[in-house]
């Protein structure tokens, strides 16, 4: 009888120990699972933080682009120095976006095929945007403003024509200047066509008049130059 009670005691204690051990292992498993998910969550939070940084940098780059178009395209200092704080800021922000995208591409949670394809798509879109923006900046530099670029050359040439025709008739020259200013303000191709027609009209007018030698020669050079610049616009 005592042996039976002793066997039952051992069996109960063993069961309790086994239950306690099983419970302990379950707790450890849960702790391990929570640690894993917490680590995953922290990893996801880092991704979210990086994406928010990219979004903020792109918004600031867009603002730098707008500031450049508003302030620098009518700023003679930009065309003289060929530099702009807005362009530098824009370049630095896009550089930061590229670095953040590169950091995201190497994250373990984003190394799977769909994420990798998305990364290459984003980088491609960023490169395309930057190329288009650089192209736009080059066009603006080529166009110029006031005394710089094509606009400056056009102003210089038309002033030569004004000086040469001042003793005779400036009405046709003023019409050219009007179309020139309308085009600069409104950016409509119709004013280029009107300007070309006015230039041809003035050329025909000069051919019919007897002007002093040097100014007439200057006019021919000026008009051929104006026609050449118009063909570039």
Which features does this protein show?
single chain, 233 residues, mainly alpha, 8 helices, 87% helix, 0% strand, disordered N terminus
Brief summary:
The chain is an all-alpha fold and 233 residues long. The chain has eight helices and no strands. Helix 1 packs antiparallel against helix 3, helix 3 runs antiparallel to helix 4 (113-143) and helix 6 runs antiparallel to helix 7.
* Domains (count): 2
- Strand count, sense and closure of the main sheet? none
The secondary structure category is: mainly alpha
Give the CA-CA distance, first to last residue.
114 Å
**Overall radius of gyration:** 38 Å
Beta percentage is under 5%
Mean pLDDT reading: 74
What pattern of helices and strands is seen along the backbone?
A: HHHHHHHH
The proportion of residues forming helix, as a percent range, comes to over 70%
Explain how this protein is built.
With 233 residues, the chain is mainly alpha-helical. It folds into two domains: 2-143; 149-232. The protein contains eight helices and no strands. α6 packs antiparallel against α7 (189-208) and α7 (189-208) packs antiparallel against α8 (213-232). The chain is rod-shaped, with a radius of gyration of 38 Å.
């Amino acid at each position: 009888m005592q042996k039976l009670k002793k066997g039952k005691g051992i069996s109960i204690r063993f069961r309790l120990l086994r239950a306690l051990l099983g419970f302990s292992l379950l707790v450890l498993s849960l702790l391990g699972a929570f640690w894993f998910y917490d680590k995953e969550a922290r990893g996801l939070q880092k991704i979210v933080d990086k994406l928010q940084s990219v979004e903020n940098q792109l918004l600031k780059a867009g603002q730098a682009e707008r500031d450049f178009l508003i302030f620098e395209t009518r700023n003679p200092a930009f065309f003289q120095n060929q530099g702009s704080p807005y362009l530098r800021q824009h370049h630095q922000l896009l550089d930061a976006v590229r670095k953040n995208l590169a950091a995201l591409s190497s994250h373990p949670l984003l190394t799977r095929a769909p994420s990798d394809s998305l990364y290459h798509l984003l980088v491609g879109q960023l490169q395309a945007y930057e190329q288009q923006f650089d192209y736009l900046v080059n066009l603006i530099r080529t166009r110029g403003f006031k005394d710089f670029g094509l606009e400056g050359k056009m102003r210089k040439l038309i002033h030569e024509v004004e000086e040469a025709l001042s003793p005779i008739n400036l009405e046709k020259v003023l019409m050219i200047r009007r179309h020139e200013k309308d085009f600069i303000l409104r950016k409509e191709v119709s004013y280029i066509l009107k300007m070309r027609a006015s230039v041809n009209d003035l050329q025909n007018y000069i051919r019919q008049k007897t002007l002093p030698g040097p100014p007439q020669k200057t006019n021919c050079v000026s008009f051929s130059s104006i026609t050449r610049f118009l063909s570039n616009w």
